[in-house]
Design brief:
The protein is an all-alpha fold. It has a single domain, classed as Plant lipid-transfer and hydrophobic proteins (Hydrophobic Seed Protein, Orthogonal Bundle), CATH 1.10.110.10. The chain has 6 helices and no strands. The protein starts with 8 loop residues before the first helix and ends in a 9-residue tail after the last helix.
Length: about 90
């Protein structure tokens, strides 16, 4: 007789929720161009800049490590821009 393996329903629900959450966070580094003035000149970041930073905060380490995206954080005031928007700087990038 063949044995069947049952998987609790909650395991399947968690898997679907996690997969959906990961898919719901698209990467759009080009939206960070709204922060270039603040990064370069130290001006206060705009509401649009902060909104876009919050939307992309999960990808900050990836952007900083990738030369293609690092340009969005070029400038001596980039750290101030991120913290001014209330986003904690990633500790381990």
């Amino acid at each position: 007789m063949a044995r069947t393996v049952t998987v609790p329903v909650w395991v399947l629900v968690v898997a679907v929720v996690v997969a959906g959450a990961m898919a719901a966070k698209p990467q759009h580094p080009e939206r960070l161009t709204s922060c270039q003035t603040a990064n370069k000149y130290g001006t206060a970041p705009s509401v649009l800049c902060c909104f876009n930073l919050w939307a992309q905060k999960h990808f900050l380490c990836m952007y900083l490590a990738n030369p293609r995206y690092r340009r969005y954080f070029a400038g001596s005031f980039a750290r101030n821009t991120v913290t001014s928007c209330g986003i904690p700087l990633p500790q381990f990038c």
